[in-house]
Amino acid sequence: MSLLPHQLELLSPARDADIGMAAIDHGADAVYIGGPAFGARATAGNELRDLERLIKHAHRFGSRIFITLNTILRDDELQGARDMAWQVYNAGADALIVQDMGLLELDLPPIQLHASTQTDIRTPEKARFLQDVGLSQIVLARELDLGEIAAIRAATDPARTSIEFFVHGALCVAYSGQCYITHAHTGRSANRGDCNQACRLPYQVTDDQGRFIAHDKHVLSMKDNNQSDNLRALIDAGVRSFKIEGRYKDLGYVKNITAHYRTLLDAIIEERQYSAEPLTRASSGNTRFLFTPDPDQNFNREFTDYFVNGRQEDIGAFDTPKTPGRAIGWVTKVGEDFVELETSDPATILHNGDGLCYYDLQKELVGMAINTAEPVSALGLNKWRVYPNDPLAELKDLRKGLEINRNRDMDWVRMLDKKSSERRIGLWAQLGETPDGFELTLTDEDGFAASARITQAHQSASDAAKGETTLREQLNRFGSTIFSVHDISLNLSQPWFVPASALNQLRRDAVIALEAARAAGLPRLQRAQPVEPPVPFPEDTLSYLANVYNAQAHAFYMKHGVQVIDAAYESKEEEGEVSLMITKHCVRFSLSLCPKQAKGVIGVKGTIKAEPLHLINGKEKLTLRFDCKPCEMHVVGKIKRSVINQFAQEQALAEQPMQFYRTRP
What are the strands, taking DSSP E only, across 557-665? Predict the structure, then answer.
């Protein structure tokens, strides 16, 4: 397995190697990043040489690098996926994050396998199955509550599989792996890393009789996930890997959010160090931040803890999918080319390049980027005149008295562009003498030790006290390394004079030897062996929702007792109306139209039913159907004829037509 039961892992995202290295420097115990291909973020791939650079840096601290290979694959892509798995394994990667079970049938390297969020793990039975087929870490569906997470932990073996859970970032409204709107409307596929984010669009909501329920609302757009206040409860429920969403996010986001959760997890580890079940971090060292982490400073749609503490009413970002930022003041005057503002806090400073925004009369968010910001001291400490980049005539409903938010603070952005953290591993140094010189031994917090020797004549120090102080000062200079000194002991018969150049060389050689010892001592994560004979899958029939797209995946499920296996939706066999998205979010509930909400309310009992609703965006129309027993919503539609026709034309012209599993048994 990847984690011991007492270890907590902070798992950060990286778009590229440089961001991944920053995540490590800001305290990540592991980083997940796209490989050269086949990741569920189509434009977030990375070359092998960059991955090697990141892996080497991470392993210095005992941190791990997980490579995403989490799309569903056609038959003709399986060999390329296998080759990539071997390439990243040989580069030193620690695990592959996978969705397609066909990969488990291939001749993969002995690399550890983790279950992607796309595998849609919601039940103890599914979790136990994935454990038994050899997945060492499984990320649970974001929609689960604490009780459901604990039930999955109870059904699985902590010594074989670690529980991973998303604690921060954008929320996909669908159960991951269960959204096909993009494919139905465009031919692209979210399960193949190419989502068009139809969930962030505005929709008209109508009932079955065509009456308007909501107008131009982003009713499928969720607020952003933030589990900062639930970490202790998640730990108690069995979560050991705390995952930050964001492989498309920028450097500042990864630095800030990684630092935020590093700070929170370290505090929990410290407070439980003397408990019956103490916890430790999953990698080495301690991180010092040169700023105060603040999740509100990054792009967010406001925050929710989603379903962790049960169904909440206020989980949607229905007014806008943009980031509203923080309220900072209000408009006092609108000039020809400027706006005067009064800030609510006199300490607030506006900068050139700041992003401001406000809600217009239709509650749509309007952005206003500052070209120039000037304090108007004659009007008071908290008065500002700003000159926007855009003409004022284009800023809809801008008027006196309007509340203004700031959603980009350039001072914050510039701060995180600089060095913003130091990660160090503590060590103890001992200087001793040899017959012909000196030996320096370094022992780090993880128990690794290394020594270096230098030939140097023993020369008495002219001032014994000063000589000892000088030795300690010279040996304590580890600033350019990843180490910091807890203590220096001098095992000498007398204080010797040792030239600074000799001590510097001794320290450099000892550090190189210690890093080599650490690298040699970092164990490679082992691939878990599947249970034999093959365990049965919890169901004997699979619909298109199982995302079976190739013959190897089909063979995998047959081996595990499944009798009927439909092809993935991307095979275009489902041409009629089907569920294009399944979600725990319920539009009826969010609009106070849920029959369960109305139970017992005098005058409406029995009159509110979970009848279908419709979503309309331009020419696109989707139907919402409500399955009240499991409390789920289905977004129903069918694949466009143009998508089917275009696919047929492409196949006719292709020299080597796409190959995938299509025939139903």
Answer: 564-565, 578-583, 613-617, 620-627, 632-637
